[in-house]
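Sequence in, structure out. Go.
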Amino acid sequence: MAPNNRNMRPPKGAKIPGQKIDFVAVKRLLGYMKNYKLTLGIVAVCIILSSLTNVASSIFLQILIDDYILPTLGRPNPVIQGLSKLILTMCGIFAVGIISGYLYNRLMAVTSQKVLKEIRDEMFEKMQKLPIRYFDTNTHGDIMSHYTNDADTLRQMLSQSLPQVFSSVITIVSILTTMLVTSWLLTVVVIVFVILMLMVTGKVAGNSGKYFIRQQNSLGDLNGYIEEMINGQKVIKVFCHEEKAKEEFDRKNEELCENARKANAFANSLMPLMHNMGYLLYVILAIFGGVIAVTTGGVTLGAIASFLNLSRGFMQPISQVSQQMNMVIMALAGAKRIFDLMDEQPETDNGYVGLVSAKIDGDKITECNEHTGKWAWKHPHGDGTITYTPMKGEVVFDGVDFGYVQGKTVLHDIHLTAHPGQKIAFVGATGAGKTTITNLINRFYDIDDGKIRYDGININKIHKSDLRHSLGIVLQDVNLFTGTIMENIRYGKLDATDEEVIAASKLANADDFIRMLPDGYNTMISGDGGQISQGQKQLISIARAAVADPPVMILDEATSSIDTRTESIVQAGMDSLMKGRTVFVIAHRLSTVQNSDVIVVLEHGKIIEQGTHNQLIAQKGKYYQLHTGAFELD
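Output:
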């Protein structure tokens, strides 16, 4: 069987690459945003208008104090002409700011969801093209976290963090310009203080970003473990493994908690730190501005009040940038994980021989569009000619070597011929290579050496989709999908009519029990078919294979997990399915393979015996030992 190794996580305290902004990920994200240039342009304008509103309030404060409040102090009949007009003007400006803020937040929320939809679509499409080897070496929970946790951090960044960062930058630039115009001396004080503040907070922000990345990795690992525990609940309970499972969960949960605690401790301390340093700057500016006003008269009281307000407005966006950058770093860490999945090497397919529906009249083969029930291999040649070979179901292994890991061969020099209509059975101890051989027939894995020919054609020359279309597979572990029984059987042939589905069910001995269900073929299945028995699941699986009407069948221990009575029903269904087809059978129960045309005995990845039941019994070798009980299968 293929290895099932969990992704290696960095050890606690290890340095994790990507703690800074990943500009490669940024560039790829921008590529998804290019289709929304107009929307983003409107968002940018709205952000600028919203940011300038904050500056306008400080300017209004200076005008109010210097032009309306101070001139009227001590006067018995103060004149405040124009004040109402100024107030109405400011109300209009604030209204524009409010509307702009609402617009850009709403537009970014919609845009971010559209971008995420594209990313999820592309990610799922790429996942369908990945080889089985990828799923052998990555936990399902970790893969799922790309669609949930990593995608959610991207959503937060696109809809909240990036607009806030842009808004903060615009606010900083506009406020800095206004402060320089108001008082360059006080502006110098602010800049010096901000530099000192950034030196202090930079260390905090750096640690926060590092632990946010670790948090994402720990979360993916924990999700993978939870998914395993959910799938293995029966095993856990049978072997009383609950406490051990809890201990392992506690360890992984503690690791996530520790990383999340440190990440959020640093991140959450930033805002109070920035606020308090802002208050300190406020006091310094009030004292320094008062000294300048009294000694030189270089600034007015209104200018000082305006400057104090501007300084508060200046500090707030700086603190927002510091805080949001942590969210950006975490989101880019998630984006990198997503893009790593997208950049995985897809399953290669250099085949050029296709499978076509055909009309066969003697030696004459004609390709046609309608379904005739007969198939042919369409083989284009370099000189432009095309030849057609009838699909018969002959499979030949010629000196095949294979290993899941380079340098570790698990199948050695396999020579085997399955003639059309023959039943080939594989027997041997667990790990002997039985399932591996069948995985090579459908090219879940590619061989290291030798050749596998299908109807005389090297399977490497056949399109994988056409090759697999010609094969039917019934596995020990049946995968059913949420939907009706009719839809689950139709999974074997998506364009099958209801009549074809019912005919396949009758062939598989599944029709009787299906009709006894409350809604018959329209009975809904969910949770991988937990509401029906294992034997019934197996019959549905056989019907699914039957509706595809393939010339070659692979039955991988299809009856090993059901009782003897149910086995007889399932076996009858499989016998009907096997008639006239080339069949590869893997079974631990030797009674199910005695009628096979060829029985192949495997040991440590090598064929040590092959022949009919009677031939192998006469040889009194390993098969004889297995059959007589002198040696038992693992």
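Check: The chain has three domains: 23-342, 354-390, 395-628. The radius of gyration is 36 Å.
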